[in-house]
Design a protein that fits this description.
Layout: E1 2-4, E2 7-9, H1 12-21, E3 28-31, E4 34-37, H2 40-50, H3 58-81, H4 85-94, E5 98-103, E6 110-111, H5 113-126, E7 132-133, H6 141-155, H7 159-180, H8 182-187, H9 192-195, H10 197-209, H11 213-223, H12 233-236, H13 240-260, H14 277-280, H15 288-291, E8 303-304, H16 315-328, E9 335-342, H17 344-350, H18 354-357, H19 363-367, H20 370-380, H21 386-391, H22 395-401, E10 404-408, H23 410-415, E11 422-428, E12 431-437, H24 450-461, H25 467-477, H26 487-492
Parallel strand pairs: 9-10
Antiparallel strand pairs: 1-2, 2-4, 3-4, 5-6, 7-8, 9-11, 11-12
Helix pairs in contact: 2-10, 2-11, 3-5, 3-7, 3-24, 5-6, 5-13, 6-7, 6-10, 6-13, 7-10, 10-11, 10-13, 11-13, 16-20, 20-22
């Protein structure tokens, strides 16, 4: 055997034996006695095409059910609570994209599959309550599940196909973000949930649609021309962030469908030298991270869920502040100063610039203000969605914001990116209380219990569904892989008669 520049020359007689040893996810091809390393694009495409429910570890299946439950609860609440609903609904009407059979979670009307993926993606990300992945610095479910649900409605596939498709999407999206180095990607002004999400959405939809490896390669090729999402929304509280995710969900679905119909996309969308994703979107991407442990180690198990509807980088500090408050019977009116220590990437998002973070003007500002969520946490001992409406106009809370300073903390930075850790110190009348949280509530090592997941879902959904429908929906999602199709479950999310609901 001789290996030169990534090529392995073997006796042709041995090739058959090597082929027998290689599983579907192996990263090699054999031709004319030469074994070549597959490209990152081809490796991911083959993984997606070959992934079957029967190959998934049971813990991955169980975790996926819980993540879908969380996603649906958030999206349903958002359909009634998010500020973007009126503009979104009117826009889809104007574009002629309403009136189809596909379901937008919590909406009485039907939409085209593309529009449903788009709208559901917006909803899932509009409350900033959706799941995260620390090392990838992304929200996995928000672009993936909407594309998967739309593809499942188009095809009528069973729950096992849906679960496998969602996992395929998770693995693709997360691995791409890790490979880019999320901090560097952010520093270039990109939102990785969106840029990587379109590939994950295509993987999910492509898996459910039954695309071949070559077709998924083409779908990824089309995704490379749609990978977008600017972080400029942080400046003015605009609604771009959920739009990013909805667009990624729709783009991934469209790419998969077009590829299934023979539309050809570029073959080296990830590693290509003329503008491949890994080269164009970060200065020093590591392609090996795309395929490391592919098919063996599931990044799905490293997805976290949120107990608070705000940027994940602040959750460890919120945990710390709530704990300090409870342990020391803190009265917020006696607080002199609070210092919160964050990893640098988190500080860039929710701590800087200090003057703006201490003066939030709207709920997007609040979601990305350590000062605001910290003020609510120390005042109320919690941080929930309804607290935005209550506290953004509360002068005591806004005054407390100005006492909260976020800094880059070496202890938190030392745990990043494995953990989004945080430190909080509260100064009261000459006494300081400090606590560090390494694994915030909801992280894989501190995951919510099944009862806590169901509790979050019930709290989000209860105002809008009758108790029987709510219970059927939750139990159905938690048995997703036993469902013959997704239609009945999605129908359960539709709004009850208006007289029984809170106002939209």
């Amino acid at each position: 055997m001789l290996c030169v520049q990534g090529l392995i020359w073997l006796d042709p007689a041995l090739i058959a034996d090597y082929d027998l040893a290689f599983d579907c996810c192996d990263l090699v091809t054999a031709e004319y006695g030469v074994i070549k390393m597959k490209s990152e694009t081809a490796s991911l495409a083959q993984f997606v095409a070959d992934l079957q429910f029967s190959r998934l570890p049971q813990d991955v299946v169980e975790r996926t059910r819980l993540l879908v439950l969380d996603h649906v609860g958030i999206a349903l609440r958002a359909r009634h609570a998010a500020a973007l609903n009126s503009a979104m609904s009117d826009s889809l009407d104007a574009l002629g994209l309403s009136g189809g059979d596909a379901v937008v979670i919590g909406d009485e009307r039907g939409y085209s599959p593309a529009a449903a993926a788009f709208y559901n993606g917006n909803l899932a990300h509009s409350l900033d309550f959706d799941d995260t992945h620390a090392r990838g610095s992304i929200h996995p479910s928000a672009p993936i599940v909407p594309a998967a649900l739309a593809a499942a409605e188009m095809t009528g596939v069973d729950g096992q196909r849906i679960v496998a498709g969602i996992v395929a999407g998770y693995e693709v999206q997360i691995r791409l973000s890790i490979a880019l180095n999320p901090t560097e990607h952010y520093n270039r002004g990109f939102h990785p949930t969106a840029t990587c999400g379109v590939f994950g959405a295509a993987a999910a939809a492509g898996s459910i649609l039954g695309l071949t490896t070559d077709q998924i390669v083409s779908a990824f090729g089309l995704c490379g021309s749609q990978a977008a999402g600017s972080m400029q929304f942080l400046v003015d509280g605009a609604w771009n962030k959920p739009f990013h995710v909805g667009y990624a969900a729709m783009g991934g679905l469209m790419s998969a469908v077009m590829a299934s119909k023979g539309f050809i996309g570029t073959k080296e969308s990830l590693e290509g030298t003329k503008g491949g994703f890994l080269k164009a979107y970060a200065p020093d991407a590591d392609p090996t991270e795309v395929i490391a442990g592919l098919g063996e180690a599931y990044e799905t198990m490293n997805i976290a869920v949120k107990p608070y509807p705000s940027c994940r980088y602040g959750h460890a500090a919120i945990d710390a502040l709530i704990a300090i408050r409870a342990a020391n019977d803190v009265d917020y009116r006696a607080v002199e100063a609070i210092e919160v220590g964050l990893p640098r990437t988190g500080w860039n998002l929710i701590g800087d610039p200090e003057s703006e973070k201490q003066n939030p003007k709207n709920y997007v500002d609040g979601q990305f203000s350590m000062a605001f969520v910290g003020a609510v946490a120390i005042r109320e001992g919690r941080m929930g969605w309804d607290d935005y409406e209550t506290h953004l106009d509360d002068q005591d809370t806004l005054a407390l914001c100005k006492k909260i300073k976020a800094v880059v903390d070496d202890r938190a930075e030392a745990h990043y990116p494995t953990n989004m850790s945080g430190v909080a110190r509260v100064d009261i009348e000459g006494t300081s209380f400090e606590q560090m949280v390494v694994d915030p509530k909801g992280e894989p090592n501190n995951f919510l219990s099944d009862a806590e997941m169901r509790g979050k879902f019930d709290t989000l959904v209860a105002p809008y569904l009758d108790p029987d429908s709510l219970d059927q929906l939750a139990k159905g999602i938690l048995q997703l892989d036993d469902q013959k199709n997704i239609h009945g479950l999605l129908d359960l999310t539709r709004a009850q008669p208006a007289a029984t609901l809170k106002a939209v």
